[in-house]
Design goal:
3-stranded parallel sheet; 2 domains; alpha/beta; 6 helices; Rossmann fold; 3 strands
Length: 132
């Protein structure tokens, strides 16, 4: 994690209006035999944006992840609902529950469907909520 954190810190030195460091696989995905993605984020002291795959089990998954982020002492800056399952039931109900239970704003909802272009996707996310 130390080496990877150093590489990311170097990249963060590049001037930019906004920089986003993307993780994939989940908060506890192993990076090696001892450390997880969460350890890396904690080392970098970065705020977290949680992407929630809206499907069966997403409430438990999102709430446990938010709890783990808080336990690491990091801010949950926001979350995005990602419609990954076209057969998912109670999608809006789950999103509403997360809006009421997660300690951060919903930055947007990306519905399931054909891959959209980046301009169309950008319209679905309220970046201003992060910049306040």
């Amino acid at each position: 994690v130390d080496r990877l954190a150093g590489l990311i810190r170097g990249a963060l030195m590049t001037p930019a209006d906004v920089t986003l460091v993307e993780g994939a696989g989940g908060w506890l995905v192993p990076l090696n035999h001892r450390e997880t993605l969460g350890n890396l984020v904690k080392e970098l002291e970065l705020p977290v944006i949680l992407v929630v795959g809206v499907r069966l089990g997403c409430l438990n998954h999102a709430l446990l992840t938010a709890q783990a982020v808080a336990a690491a002492g990091l801010p949950l800056a926001g979350w995005v609902a990602n419609g990954i399952d076209p057969e998912a039931a109670k999608v809006q109900e789950n999103i509403n529950t997360l809006k009421s239970m997660l300690p951060a704003p919903c930055l947007g909802v990306i519905p399931h469907g054909p891959q959209a272009d980046k301009e169309a996707l950008a319209q679905l996310i309220d970046i201003d909520l992060l910049l306040q």
